[in-house]
Amino acid sequence: MRRVLILGSTGSIGTQALDVIRANPERFEVVGLAAGRDRAGVEAQAAEFGVEAFALGAMEAELLVRDVEADVVLNGITGSVGLGPTLAALEEGRTLALANKESLIVGGDLVTRLAAPGQIVPVDSEHSAIAQALRSGEPHEVRRLVLTASGGPFRGRSRAELAEVTPAQALAHPTWDMGRVVTTNSATLVNKGLEVIEAHLLFDVPYERIDVVVHPQSIVHSMVEFIDGSTIAQASPPDMRLPISLGLDWPNRVAGVGAPLDWTTASQWTFEPLDEEAFGSVALAKHVGRAGGTYPAVFNAANEQAVDAFHEGRLSFLGILEVIERVVDRHEAPGALTRESLADAEAWARRTADEVIAAS
Questions:
Q1: I want to staple 232 with a disulfide (CB 3.0 to 4.6 A). Which of 28, 133, 169, 182 is the partner?
Q2: What pLDDT digit, counting tens, does each position of 39-48 carry?
Q3: Domain ranges for the chain
Q4: CATH topology of domain 2-123
């Protein structure tokens, strides 16, 4: 029986994790829940699963991680506020099922230095796919990682055609149902850039050996290319319950969490190169990742400010990446990477992004 603590329990990842646990009561026990602001929602969940320990907000979630005996902590919090709970889970020796990519990207070496081998299990579908494919060979046999991207709602559009994109269009993702920030990040491909940084930190593969390919069907979730020319892909219908279930009990599989592919029906899977002229966020993310330190935190914070401005009608779609680039260019990294220096860098990035937006 795996004792599970779920952070972000009322969000998309959290509710799907509870679906997995609800269907497998002999395998998982919920020992704690934390939500952002939805008190009524988390109280209802606690009543259903007989949980006494629950919290609201990231600070309370971090305390909950330290106070509750759990085998695995699923961090499904949105945004860099998830860093504290991520660090707490690692310090307490819990297995960390990580859906909160921002905490790894922003925390960087702070997180990786704390993590024991195998302690972090990725829950993002792309990184779960890579983790599964990597079991086919040894680390020295890996040539490159290939992350797939759906291409979002604007796949195939030129840079000029993106100039008049509206917030409503940016939220019309063809495959996934996600929140405002993540869906917009998918449209700009900032999300894929963040995932490239995450892949580097999780799997210790250099940026020059991490590629992105556009795969609109979202069936192949990512691939690993080996030195003998073999490419191992993980394929399944788009359903987050599969990577979530692996996060809860890695490397063991949970029967029935998702439907398999239907091989009796004709289908086509297509792959296209990424148009880096129209979508420059992946290249910028690699630059930021190589710079390290507080640069990824600045990248992430500037993006969040720019996305808000876009949805409030204060910034164009193309302006999102332009703001990020200008903020990153102005940043001067501090000497030591600490939680305090990260917080200072994020605050600086938000102020600077707001200044750039106001002047645009």
A1: 133
A2: 999 999 999 9
A3: 2-123, 124-239+262-276, 293-360
A4: Rossmann fold (3.40.50)
